[in-house]
Amino acid sequence: MAEPIAVKLAEKQRAVSVAEFFERNRHLLGFDNKRKALLTVVKEAVDNSLDACEEARILPEISVEIIEMGNERFRIVVEDNGPGIVKKQIPNIFAKLLYGSKFHSLKQARGQQGIGISAAVLYAQLTTGRPARITSRIDAKHPAHYFELHLNTQKNEPEIIKDEEISWKKERGTKVELDIEASYQKGDQSVDSYLKETAIVNPHATIVYTNPKAEQSIFPRATDKLPKEPAEIKPHPYGIELGIMLKMIKATESRTLQSFLTNEFSRVGSQTAKEICAAAGLQTDMKPRELELAHVEKLMEGIKKTKIIAPPTDCIVPIGEELLEKGLRKEVAAEFYTSVTRSPEVYRGIPFVVEVALAYGGQQPADQPVRILRFANRVPLLYQQSACSSFKSVLQTNWKPYGLQQSSGAAPNGPLTVIIHLASVWPPFTSEAKEAIAHYPEIIKEMKLALQEAGRRLGMYVNKKRRVASERERVNIFERYIPEVADALAQLSGENKKVIEDQLTSMLAKNKEFIQANVAAASEREEPEDDIKLTGNAERDEE
Amino acid sequence: MSEAKKKLQTLGKELVEGVKKGKQPKLDVPIRALSNIKYNEKTKTLELGGKSSERLFFNVGHVKKFAQTLEVAKISKQLLDLQKHASLRDMFYMAKRTLPGTNTNLVDEQSESDNAIEDLEVVTGFSREQLNVNANKNGSVAGHVVIEDKGDTIDWARMGSGGWSIPSNVEEIKFKKVDAKYVLYMEKAAVWERLHEDKFWDKQKCIIMSSQGQTTRGLRRLLQRLSSEHKLPIYVLCDYDPYGAYIYSVLKYGSINLAHMAESLTLKDAKYLGITSNDIEKYGLKKHFIKLKDVDVARLKQISEYDWFKNNKAWQREFKAMKAFGAKAEIQALSARGITFISDQYLPEKIKNKDWIE
Q1: pLDDT of residue A516
Q2: B31 and A519 in contact by Cβ < 8 A?
């Protein structure tokens, strides 16, 4: 008798390491193509630097250098003045996927999962074979450490190729050097625009950028005020799914269900915990470890039935209207700026804040769709625009009252830059590459309200500008015709042209109010000349 | 100095006087549209009503038209001074220019300068021919008629295959000899050529006249002079469609656009010879029908409601029949009965039997 087929199949079945999985699915992390890879590597390094500086309350000074090495290879060097990394942690942070400080906490930050920079290291390794080179120093009293690292894709563990102490002129900071296969292009979705946009929403950071053509741009900081340190919060019961609840129950050290609820969740006091238990039909003194799946399902039902106040929102640190406008002013030349920071709101138990800023006019093209710059937790989102809530909320807003042109279902046309920023302890991205914000109705609603508020201010400006222009136009139109009419009158009557012209000009000057009053009448049809419309050849009476 | 020139000068002087007193320049322009047209039962002509619109200089909506009207007045005065005539097209180019320092043109299309001239006509009471502006000549005539034009003697019987082409201004023409019993005007130049080739005017002792489509002023004035000075009956031959009826209407009662010129241009005694609904039946033209389009039906309804047709039983019968047929027919459909059928049988028969509509 032959072996069951399952036995044979079992020979091929084995665990796939996370590293192997991502090696094959690099697009999930933003390495779809060579151009995007360049951006993603820079972005991960810069995001980490900014997060680290802010956490250490240091005003960020970041230098980004891209060197073209020929044959589609680029060296990327990102250096910051951040807190540095202790020696022991350097290999794990840079050469182990899913290793990080942020996954386990609910706190507003750029990074989330601890994938980004190690994925960049992995990408470098896969395309050029060169190890990542990290230099870090924590203060003047400690030496600088230099590492060369590979990532073992089978085990998802760092491989240390070189580990030495070096002398470094910097007292504190971290420097990352990666060689990758990439291609460089300017324009939208480029490193250049990513850094420019980063400078807009991080007005406290100074960024020095040298591109592959050895052109240097400096984005100086516009403020010395660091953003407030965001507070860490516990999850809110409304935002918890069954799987996570099970995990939390397994991990908790609380002895009773009631203390589990009050200890592990925000906005749950003993009263609320009792209510939840009552609604779920569970005893408050049950031991969490003894809860079975059926109990946990009941608990979830109980949470749904209980009224729990919204999570605290002081954990969100928006950029703020003033600073957002400052950042926009320094990077986008326009004639009118406005910005709106909404009050915090909650989606699925997770607090968030929407901010919008507009820059109107200047040299921006008037006959093209408006430029939409999307951000989440101060990080520019450059890809997947049409899949993003921000874009959707711009489309769903009626821009016509604000003086822009818009055909239904499309983005408005006009000389306008729109900035939409979502700050949240957990921005809901549609994919791990963090390119678009998922369509939660609560988020879209807030975005639209913010756009409308900013839009109304824009509308007042645009309409006033238009009024002034048309008033000027009205007076101008007569000025233009005066010489023509004066000439005709002079020739008909035999009088002096100059005299007539002067007379008409002084009448124009005296009668500005009269002329303006006249305008209302002019908008009506001047005479009913067209009230019959002859058709066919009969229309051409006399040709 | 001609009357027209005097009038233009007065117009200019009055406006300048006003300006000197601080009054803004304005023109009173009678409205040339159906809303301001009255049909005078007694004289059987269209007349311009009393409605006029003020055209103000200091008005954003008026200023361009105001300037255009004064511009053509200025050009007309120059022409009168030089004793030269300009065509409507010339006039357009003389007025067309860009205002200094702008991208605005004084006139953009010829229709604008044409309109300005018609406005000037109603403002001054002089026809554009009197203002030395001529339309393009359009139309041919043949018959036993001898005229004198600018010192030249012209015999309409000896003008070859094209006939004499009718100028836009026929005021100065002198009739030396008119040997005809009637004038036949037709809508189609092609039909005129057919009749001319058949020497119809010679055989029937008549004058044949045509223009392509709508009648020009020169042609209408010529018809009117033949009618009033030589008492010739005028017969009109048109396609069987709403526009044919309107061509007849313009000849007889005047046109809506030129109601201010009605008196010098209408032909009170013009008779509509064909094609009529009776002809359709009698000559079996149904098989050559062309279906009426929606615009044709709309136009038919419009025309049938004109004051001057409203109470005309014969015409109302025609309109009703055309609507019932839901179709129109061309004059040339008669050629199906033989190439010379129109000149040998159709026209002589119609005229002999007085088979026409008024």
Answers
A1: 52
A2: no
Question: Could you read off the pLDDT of B9-40 as tens digits, one per residue?
Answer: 999 999 999 888 888 888 988 887 788 888 88
Q: How far is it, in rounded angstroms, from Cα B225 to Cα A45?
A: 97
Domain stops at, among B90, B119, B134: B134
Span A408-426, pLDDT tens digits = 888 999 999 999 999 998 8
User: Which member of B8, B67, B136 has the closest CB to residue A484?
Assistant: B67
B227 and B343 assigned to the same domain: yes
Question: Across all residues in chain A, what is the average pLDDT?
Answer: 85
Beta strands in chain B (DSSP E): 26-30, 37-40, 45-48, 52-56, 86-87, 133-134, 140-142, 145-149, 152-155, 164-165, 174-178, 182-186, 206-210, 234-237, 271-274, 290-291, 327-328
Of B9, B35, B298, the CB nearest to A535: B298
Range of lowest pLDDT (A235-239, A252-256, B210-214): B210-214
Chain A residues inside the 8 Å CB shell of B77: 491-492
Are B55 and B170 within one domain?
Answer: no
User: In chain A, what residues touch B295 (CB-CB under 8 Å)?
Assistant: 535-536
Does residue B152 belong to any structural domain of this protein? no
Asked if residue B240 is part of any domain, the answer here is yes
| Residue B171 located in a structural domain | yes
Q: From CA A96, how far away is CA A18, in angstroms rounded?
A: 10
Q: Do A477 and B60 touch (CB under 8 A)?
A: yes
- Reply yes or no on whether B93 is catalytic: yes
Residue stretches of chain B with pLDDT short of 50: none
Among candidate residues A161, A97, A155, the one with its CA nearest the CA of residue A132? A161
In tens, the pLDDT along A462-475 reads 888 888 887 777 77
Amino acid identity at A171: E
Q: Are residues B74 and B177 in the same domain?
A: no
Considering only CB atoms, B63 lies closest to which of A478, A488, A503, namely: A478
How many beta-carbon contacts under 8 Å exist across A and B? Answer: 162
- What value, to the nearest 5°, has the Cα angle with vertex B244 and ends B240 and B247? 165
With CA atoms as reference, report the closest residue to B184 among B253, B275, B271.
B271
Whole-number Cα distances in Å, B185 to A429, A542, B208, B233, B255: 82, 16, 6, 11, 17
Which chain A positions have a beta carbon within 8 Å of B100's beta carbon?
Answer: 480, 483
Pair (B57, B182) in one structural domain: no
Q: What is the pTM of this model?
A: 0.58
Q: A530 pLDDT exceeds 70?
A: no
How many distinct structural domains can be found in chain B? Answer: 2
> Under an 8 A CB cutoff, do A537 and B58 touch?
no
pLDDT for res B326 = 92
Q: How confident is the model at residue A537 (pLDDT cuts 50, 70, 90)?
A: very low
pLDDT, tens digit (0-9, with 9 covering 90-100), for A156-168: 889 999 999 999 9
| pLDDT greater than 80 at residue A532 | no
User: What band does A8 get if pLDDT is binned at 50, 70 and 90?
Assistant: confident
**In a shared domain, residues B250 and B347:** yes
Cβ burial, residue A469 (10 Å; 0-12/13-18/19+): exposed
Q: Tell me, yes or no, whether B47 and B172 share the same domain.
A: no
Do B185 and B114 fall within a single domain? Answer: no
Q: Which of A477, A503, A521 is closest, CB to CB, to B19? A: A503
Q: Are both B127 and B161 inside the same structural domain?
A: no
Binary contact (A488, B71; C-beta < 8 A): yes
What confidence category does residue A100 fall into, taking pLDDT thresholds of 50, 70 and 90? low
pLDDT for A273: 92
Locate the chain A residue with the closest alpha carbon to B78: A491
pLDDT average, residue stretch A272-279: 92
Here the CATH number for the domain that contains residue B32 is: 1.10.10.10
Asked whether residue B24 is assigned to any structural domain, the reply reads: yes
Residues from chain B contacting residue A532 (CB–CB below 8 Å): 33-34, 256, 302
Shortest Cα–Cα distance, A367 to chain B (Å): 20
With helix as H, strand as E and coil as C, how does A149-172 read? EEEECCCCEEEEEEEEEECCCCCC
Instruction: Give the CATH number for residue B193.
Output: 3.40.1360.10
What residue numbers bound the domain in which B235 lies? 157-352
